[in-house]
Amino acid sequence: MIVLALGIAGCGPQEPAAQQRSDAAPTQQPAAPAAVITTNPADAATGVRPDTTVQVGVQDGLLSQVSLTRPDGEQVPGKLARDGLSWESTEPLTASTDYTLTVRAHNGDANRTDSTARFSTLTPADTQQVRISPREGASVGIAMPVTATFSRPVTNKAAAERRLVVESIPLVQGAWHWDSDTQATYRPRDYWPGGTRVTVHRDLNAVELAEGLWGVAEEPVTFTIGAATRSVVDLAAHTMTVHRNGQVLRTIPITAGKQGMQTRIGTKVIMSRETQRTMNSATVGIPKDDPDYYLLNVRYAMRLTNSGEFLHAAPWSAHAHGKANVSHGCTGMSTDNARWLMGESKIGDPVEFVGGTRPLHEGNGWTLWNVPFEEWKQGSALD
How far apart are CA 80 and CA 111, in angstroms? Predict the structure, then answer.
């Protein structure tokens, strides 16, 4: 019965199923559309800002090759998105430069599309450089500030500050503080460790510092911090104690500012060193007809304030050294001690004055160490 049933179900000539499929017409797949490449800037663009991020995109395909080159063949680095649909440059352009952007993409059928775009960046109406202090190769003291000085006012301070990068070995925490539109000062939280190597990067290429005023790329400046020398002047005790690397080197008898011309208290920094200097009181507001007028040639002078306070030899007041304050505001000592002190001192060494009442006003010298670090950081243009 089962065999019969099968015979009825299969009556008439039949072809195998596989043979029937092989005779069917094949299904045609539509061709994949060509990949479409877009670029920004567009081909033939001129006057492109150097801070422009070059962008490449593709539709109906994937990017396989992107090259952005300068006339000398140097490539501008860039990053391809993980999905292969976009690319963008990761470094700024250079002003007054021609660029060639070549792109290749493939569609779903692996067919290739090539694109070439040429554009040029703007020629700045004006550029400016930045001067860094200390100078290249200098050896300075542990309280030395880093200053970046611009010849013209900077309005885009945040952009400028991002490109003023301070690196140090060992690593220290620090911050920039804008003193004015033309100067920013950097300091660490605490004094620099002795022996620190500091490098200041100043690549301001493609930074518009003010409207129409562009920065340029400049070489970094590297300097070193010398031995950790620090002095403490006690105005009440009439002494100056010199420390190096935590050890006392010498305690020097001194005289400081007399009544009415008291020496200011606070942390000062040695700003200059001169083996001989002529001091004229008329330059600090004491005229010739004043009983306190002086015109002196002094030895071993080291400036501490803009207003005229120095460390220097004062042999004429030897009777008061270690006993009384009789000067016009400077810190005087014997010639032998002044000679020794200059030999042991560097620009940037801190001198801390205690035992008095007259304050040191901000900006009267390198007064940055009298400002708490958290307050100092508020002068940064960055959050």
Answer: 20
